[in-house]
């Protein structure tokens, strides 16, 4: 479009490391049309994901669909620019993120029969406080995490390249994005919609004493994300898969006996749910704390720079900070975070802990005070780890529930120590401890989900050249808008289906119930801690695995210049195979492409133009995979509409149940063809 500002000489250079809008160029970013479009998309995408979050325990990342939709709409305005696209995408993505954070935990209070409905204002205030803290927590992390070259931010890179190619009108780049998007969207439609294909293939067999087998994940979006993050993360995930699934399932089925299930596939999933994922939690807990210790120095340095800039402004010595490095002033961040603690305290004391609980006022306020303190300190720690995950593996595949379980375990253990001084019976301790712990985790969960998406959005802004403080303002606006939308959506779904085995009225159909698996996990873990029925041995084994991986990682980094990220290992243990294996496939594919490029261009000979030619191939592969991620993600959001209308994820199903094994074989063939196609297109010589 001729009138677009970003097609003028404001766009400079060919260096992919430089933002598309340079720091010395200022364009409109927060405009009326951005606010209107952002509000609409925030509401729509929050509603679309609420059903999926409660039904199957997952949500579809809204960042890419929001970027594509806003890009298409803003094209109709003559003077629109890429930074406005970024602002709309940022605001809309908050709706999905906050929905996930609230829907994954708050229903646990329904499951525990503490609440009998989603009170509107309690839910609004909880969402506002948790989401606001999530935004504030990531502001001091931005510089440290975006400057870490080991973090690839696969989804942010995908969004950034979509916006870049559109803005620069690079026909070759747009063609790769479109082709990738079409392929990713069609495969996702046939997998999740028509179900002629499947995104998972499990093959397990049982002997008299153990279970053996393996599973494949066949999601095109995750294969493409694996290609983007590369071989190091893929191999780390593979180590976790080998520990948790290849070795863990046979050994644990032998030690604990075969579970009570109809098929070997179901038995393997029971072992994963009851044992393996707790091992992953232990690995991620220790690995997360270790990662946090490595982030401490750069985060403190970043905060010190911010405080120094504030002091210089106060004494009239303002330095010329680049536009693309201006955050919300750090002292405003600290003051705002401390101010939010006041309503959080009263929320826990007067809303989360029911008034009918027979607790002395002093002890009620003590528990509320500790919960508030933990939200501040523990929330920042786990938000830092979650933000790191967004860069390591992408926001969609980040283990929000795994970190939430880790955070929940810590606060439950502390509460057990507090309760040892009371004369309450075990049932009272279990109820009060579970309620206060989960109430605190609702706020932390909202903050975690927001920090996950926020760091990705800030990376997109770095790619395109947005102003950080304006991005952070849009994130806060997105939190406000979505906070007022989430409660009626949750209440509507609860009234229509029931949640987690709890129904608002008798004679409802259990088959239509929303299982709320993440909230159910939170309730089970909290009750398990206080009833002494949690898998502590598995968590301990996972912690030991983390220590071993940390030692190996340090040795590899020091002597061989490579890494074994412990969090990725924990992720491989914790995630089901249909989420982790496709990332491994994509990473291996990227390695094979690079190996072939080295062979073709004889890189070791040091020819002058070799790197330029190889970079052209790498760029093509990156754009192709970005398109696949975008197409599959957009299709996921589109499919949420008929699923919600028909009240079933089988609304468009064409494949009969008895032929699903055939769908699995066909999916393996299609996945092989997809990988072969990517390999061939990337290596094609111009």
From TrEMBL:
It comes from the Bacteria. Keywords: Membrane, Transmembrane, Transmembrane helix, Transport. One of its GO terms (cellular component) is membrane. Its main location: membrane. The keyword Isomerase does not apply. It is found in: Membrane. GO terms for molecular function: oligopeptide transmembrane transporter activity. It is a multi-pass membrane protein. It holds the Pfam family OPT. The chain crosses the membrane at residues 34-52, 58-77, 97-115, 121-141, 177-197, 209-230, 237-256, 276-296, 332-353, 373-393, 400-419, 431-452, 473-494, 514-530, 537-556, 568-593, 622-645, 660-682. PANTHER family: OLIGOPEPTIDE TRANSPORTER YGL114W-RELATED. This is OPT oligopeptide transporter protein. It comes from Aquicella siphonis.
